[in-house]
Amino acid sequence: MSLLQFKARPWVVFDPSNKDHRNWYYQFVQHGTWGRCPYRFILPEDHGMNLITLCQLSLIKYYVTQEFGNPRAKSTRKTKKISG
Length: 84
Known about the structure:
Layout: H1 4-7, E1 11-13, H2 19-31, E2 40-42, H3 51-68
Parallel strand pairs: 1-2
């Protein structure tokens, strides 16, 4: 067993609901490198895309679901009635 396996960053699956994972992706966008991230994100073979695209699509799905996914959640937006 290689010594690098003990010192390497652990492998994790990118989870957009995890605030730390979103923060590490944001750091990547700001700095253009994963160097400050304590993890190595796994890219599933069946996705056929790169890690950045996977993160972007996961985040889009997460935020759209947050806003529109729960039909029972009441909207905080107020609509103005136009009298005419």
